[in-house]
Write the structure tokens for this entry.
Amino acid sequence: MTKDEKILVIDDEQVILNAVSRIATAEGLNVDSDNDAASALKKLSHKEYSLILCDIMMPQMDGFIFLDEMQKRKILTPVIMITGYSTVENAVKSLYKGAIDFVPKPFTFEELNSAISRGIKFYRVQKGIEDAKFRNDKTSILYVPGPPKYKRLGNLSWMNLQSEGIAVIGATDLFLETIEKLVNIELMEIDAEIIQGDSCANLVTDDELIHRLLSPVGGRIIERNEKIFKDINLLEKDPYFAGWIYKVIPSNMEYDLKYLVPFASDRM
């Protein structure tokens, strides 16, 4: 991570502010912090940050309202939400509202470090897109969106519901663009139950970071893509087809769909 990157941490618990600041500073990042989301919004009006880490459950202005306010003000800084283990649904909701990732409490150094690393790279991809728009450069392709009929959980994972009711899931190209070179993948076993918004796979990169992939739907795994064990590059070369990860029998597709976004909307 570049030394001059600046991040903003928002949490009403001083112990969390201290922990995040300590970890981020150790990685060479400049850290600003605030214990109030409304106050943090004022900072965003005159300071530029590469990344924001924000708690969901806060008094007065919570993380959801903060995301809404950022959207209203057209502030594009990527946001990673911080949440308790007991609020996975809230975390999924935050992805639907525009957060790029979430980190559960209590977090480890490795969990936070990998999330921040992805967040900084997401910021750079986003800046590249904005720069290309400014130059009216339509030839720059920084990532490939999924097929229009597929649906995504935030910018992390995708789901394609087949005619027989089986959901095929995988990692988005944008998620893969925010990590270093893949060297390994750790998958769950067949018949394992997965939950929407919970980790379903670990992607290991050559910088020794482990990146958890969040499942777009809940259900029972009935098939794994064993080919990616033999050729890990399939994930990056063809993430939406040959690089699929699981086939799943959904447990409550109607419920899960309310937090998924069609890729078709990205082209509007």
